[in-house]
From TrEMBL:
Protein name per the record: ABC transporter domain-containing protein
Keyword Acetylation among UniProt keywords: no
Organism of origin: Miscanthus lutarioriparius
Membrane topology, record value: Multi-pass membrane protein
PANTHER family: ABC TRANSPORTER DOMAIN-CONTAINING PROTEIN (PTHR19229:SF127), ATP-BINDING CASSETTE TRANSPORTER SUBFAMILY A ABCA (PTHR19229)
SMART domains, alphabetized: AAA
Stretches that traverse the bilayer: 367-388, 400-421, 427-446, 505-526
Protein family according to the UniProt entry: Belongs to the ABC transporter superfamily. ABCA family. CPR flippase (TC 3.A.1.211) subfamily.
Length: 918
């Protein structure tokens, strides 16, 4: 008998309370959010009211205020021309509508540009004297397979102008100029004195003219891309790893380009080192924040590609040009967020240890209800304290009733939606889309319907069935009466207004209450049956089984299973047939003498899109007694996991059934869960709980309390060697992988479960911990049944009283380790080592004289292995013959070994594959 619903609820509540206490900071932030939001709304309302009163009294709007586009800068709105901000400050805020701006090319700062300073061996670089007056050219490197073609292209990369240019009248011509230094200069093949470029720039709400000077662009040929890479690398480090600079602006490798094809590799720099100088910027830094150089980074590659493409088109002489006038930022938000967890698997883990659905949903519902209550009360309290008339003017009791009904409706609606999602991320995205879309629909569609007096109120009621529209109707009515209260004698919504049919509040409240209960009922139904179809099918099977007897199958089903059994008998081995007969002979009264009975279990996954059905488990029948450890072995994909999933209720069998302590897995899984323990393959643990707190929680689910609970926890920790070094009171997040594995095994054994499932319990453990685990499992199996899956033949040999090997979904053999070795091994292995040469043949003749049926299976450098059938062989004869042969042959070593379980496993798996192919 497992713990009652009240005891389960108490265990889950205490566990969640510990987790929430350790998440104190997060919870405080959640609860304080209404204060922040109300403060912002209240501040805006005070500012609007103050502005309105100032204008009504003939006052003027204050001259200074803070603007997002001019962060921390006081501006004068009364000045001629309106607001003007330094260009860079627009990057301090989110950009819902980013302004257009020309693309910029990054080039090195003049004092870091490549010159003949000994670092580079090339004589075509500018003289180092140009750094004195800042006239050094920006260097671009090029290479390619076709030298003449590349020279023709690079002659057209930069435009040539001999006089100043003003583009205020024709801004589209800006694409002909290569702007650099974040708009501080433009590149040409040759710069003339006083050569400038004027172009319009948008600053906030104003457009001003920007004047920039000319910078010479120097394009130099290199014989190979390897030389370019060496020069770029040398220019990047300047021979000093502590001062990174960028001497080369960019590099082009035109590969095999010619007039008919255009291939290009661009080398550019994505860092900011050496591209600007603190002392040479016209705009000072603000609050020690980095300048907005990331915009230039994003323009760098497309601008370099555009330069080369236009030069190629100009060389072809077809008159085409690729305009690149402006770029824009994507609209960006201020605060991104992401969230994910493993709640679904943890809930399944808790359910398998006895946590019922009612306690789980009760605690979850109460948690979200409490959180919602704190939110609503915080909004009402803070909103009223900050003077928000929305809260002050409407009756507080009416507000609380409506908000309380809505938050219960929203919680039940959210619970209903969780049954359709398996991914937290997908559910989160869908939730945000629901809020956003429903808000837009409410404002632009639903409101117009509410205010349309000619529209039938029945349509409004129908739309209010969507919870989002119900909330909007409540807010709309509260706000409408609040607005009317400014000019009329109304004081917002009062209790007497509930009977007024014009506001529709009584209908909204009725809809919310009814939907609240309907959504909860649907949630419980889908959570239990997964779908409406499965629920109806299970109900029909349950009714039919009750009519025909207590879980007894109909005669038709029995005939089908009998036919399947007769068809499969010919393919089964003797031990499997015998096990099936034992299961069939177990009567209804004697089921309880066996702990676990698998009765012709089968699982078929139906094929989709024309694919054939996949039979994962084929009519497996097994009986397991108490005090026994049963090992399930098999290759990957054999059906082991599917079998365990059916026994633990993860999936339903297609046909057949199983009985756990006399209870049917098709109908009694809730009762079965109270008496089983599970160690899953993955460690499903809470990172912010300690090992002791995990055992406390699962122990309470097993109805342990007081001294018995404390003793069981100490025993579990001691058996898994988790008591030393304060390990029980450390957070699981600080555990090693082996410690987590041992804790998972301890959880599966606490509370004296009658059946324990262990899925590869020793994976990831060191040899010493594995030995200790084996001791604990041996001790634990004395009064319970343990079903163990493993890939370690040594582990199965040590722990398992009986072993079943599954391959291709079928039970291939069953028995103890010794029985399987005798039945499917049938031979011993004799190993003899001699010097390589003629004596090897003498050894083979000797073995043949001992056992004529012996077969040599291995021969390398004097070492030979022979398989000798056990039938008719005497070990004393083998020993005597080998000792006698030592006197005449140079036998360096010899040994006789029995068949291992691994040999049996490999042989059975191969035979199964061969029979499947046949």
């Amino acid at each position: 008998m497992g713990a009652s619903h009240l005891e389960q609820t108490n265990a889950l509540f205490r566990k969640n309370l510990v987790i929430q206490r350790r998440s104190c900071k997060t919870n405080c932030c959640l609860i304080s959010f209404p204060l922040l939001l109300c403060s912002v709304i209240g501040g805006l309302q005070i500012a609007i009211n103050h502005a309105s009163s100032s204008q009504g009294e003939g006052g003027a709007i204050p001259a200074t205020h803070l603007d997002c586009s001019c962060s921390n800068v006081s501006v004068d709105e009364n000045a001629m021309g309106g607001i003007e901000c330094p260009y860079q400050y627009e990057y301090e805020c989110p950009l819902p509508r980013a302004p257009k701006q020309p693309p910029f090319l990054k080039i090195p700062n003049p004092k870091y540009r490549a010159v003949q300073d000994g670092l580079f061996p090339y004589t075509d670089l500018p003289d180092a004297s140009c750094r004195v007056n800042g006239s050094c050219a920006a260097t671009f490197l090029v290479t390619g397979d076709n030298h003449s073609f590349v020279e023709g292209v690079i002659d057209n990369i930069f435009t040539a102008h001999s006089s100043s240019v003003n583009l205020s009248a024709d801004v589209s011509a800006l694409s002909d100029f290569v702007l650099a230094d974040y708009g501080g200069s433009f590149l040409q093949n040759k710069c003339f004195p006083n050569l400038t470029l004027s172009y319009p720039v948008q600053h906030g709400n104003r457009t001003v003219s920007q004047d920039v000077q000319c910078t010479e662009g120097l394009v130099l040929w290199r014989d190979s891309s390897r030389l370019i890479n060496d020069e770029l690398y040398g220019g990047y480090y300047q021979g000093n790893n502590n001062h990174k600079t960028d001497a080369i602006a960019a590099a082009y490798d035109f590969l095999s380009s010619d007039q008919g094809k255009f291939n290009l590799i661009i080398s550019y720099n994505s860092t900011n080192y050496g591209f600007y100088d603190e002392s040479e910027q016209s705009v000072p830094a603000l609050n020690n924040q980095e300048r907005p150089v990331q915009k230039a980074n994003s323009d760098q590659v497309p601008r370099l590609a555009n330069m080369a493409s236009n030069a190629y088109l100009h060389l072809k002489g077809n008159g085409l040009n690729m305009s690149f006038e402006f770029v824009k930022d994507m609209p960006r938000a201020a605060i991104p967020a992401a969230h994910n967890d493993r709640q679904n698997k943890l809930r399944i883990m808790m359910k398998m240890h006895g946590l019922g659905d009612l306690p789980y949903w009760t605690i979850s519902y109460c948690y979200f209800l409490l959180l919602s209550l704190l939110y609503v009360l915080s909004f009402m309290l803070f909103g009223s304290a900050l003077g928000l008339t929305f809260f002050r003017q409407n009756n507080y009791g009416v507000q609380f009733v409506f908000f309380f009904a809505y938050m219960n409706l929203q919680i039940s609606f959210a619970f209903l939606m969780t049954t359709y999602f398996s991914s937290v991320r997908t559910a989160t995205v869908t939730g945000y889309l629901y809020i956003f879309v429903s808000g837009l629909l409410s404002q632009f569609i639903f409101r117009s319907y509410v205010e349309d007096a000619n529209l039938s109120r029945s349509w409004i009621t129908l739309m209010e069935l969507l919870p989002a529209f119900s909330l909007y109707r409540i807010v709309y009515e509260f706000s409408r009466f609040e607005r009317l209260g400014n000019y009329m004698a109304f004081l917002g919504i009062q209790w007497t207004d509930m009977t007024n049919p014009e506001n529709g509040l009584a209908g909204v409240l009725t809809i919310m209450v009814l939907e609240w209960f309907v959504f909860l009922l649907l949630t419980f139904y889908l959570d239990h049956f997964h779908s409406f179809k499965d629920g109806m099918k299970k109900a029909a099977v349950f009714v039919r089984s009750r009519i025909n007897g207590n879980h007894v199958e109909t005669a038709q089903q029995q005939n089908i299973q009998l036919q399947e059994f007769r068809a499969s008998v010919e393919l089964e081995r003797t031990d499997v047939i015998k096990e099936r007969e034992i299961v069939e002979q177990i009567s209804e009264e004697s089921r309880r003498s066996y702990s676990v009975i698998c009765d012709n279990l089968e699982k078929v996954y139906r094929g989709k899109d024309g694919n054939a059905d996949k039979i994962a488990v084929r009519g497996i029948s097994i009986s397991m007694s108490r005090g026994q450890c049963f090992g399930v072995l098999g290759p990957n994909g054999a059906g082991k996991t599917t079998l365990i999933n059916m026994l633990t209720g993860f999936c339903k069998p297609t046909s057949g059934t199983a009985y756990i302590e006399g209870m049917d897995i098709r109908f009694d899984m809730d009762r079965i869960y109270t008496g089983i323990g599970v160690c899953p393959q993955d460690d499903l643990l809470w990172e912010n709980l300690t090992g002791r707190e995990h055992l406390l929680f699962y122990g309470r689910l097993k109805k342990l309390k007081g001294a018995a609970l404390a003793e069981a926890i100490e025993q579990s920790l001691r058996s898994m060697h988790l008591l030393a070094g304060g390990v029980p009171d450390k957070l699981v997040g600080k555990y090693s992988g082996g410690m987590k594995r041992r804790l998972s095994v301890a959880i599966s054994l606490i509370g004296d479960p009658k059946v324990v499932y262990m899925d590869e319990p020793s994976s990831g453990l060191d040899p010493a911990s594995r030995k200790n685990l084996w001791k604990a499992v041996k001790s634990a199996k004395q009064d319970r049944t343990i079903i163990l899956t493993t890939h370690s033949m040594e582990e199965a040999d040590v722990l398992c009283d009986r072993i079943g090997i599954i391959a291709n979904g079928s039970l291939q053999c069953i028995g103890s380790s010794k029985e399987l070795k005798d039945r499917y091994g049938g031979s011993c292995v004799l190993t003899v080592t001699t010097p390589a040469g003629e004596e090897e043949e003498e050894i083979e003749r000797l073995v043949q004289s001992i056992s004529p049926a012996a077969n040599r299976v291995y021969r390398v450098s004097g070492t030979q292995k022979f398989e000798m059938p056990k039938q008719g062989m005497k070990i004393s004869v083998v020993f005597g013959a080998m000792e006698q042969a030592k006197s005449s042959l140079h036998i360096l070593a010899w040994g006789l070994a029995d068949t291992t379980l691994e040999d049996v496993f490999v042989r059975v798996a191969k035979q199964s594959d061969m029979s499947t192919v046949t």
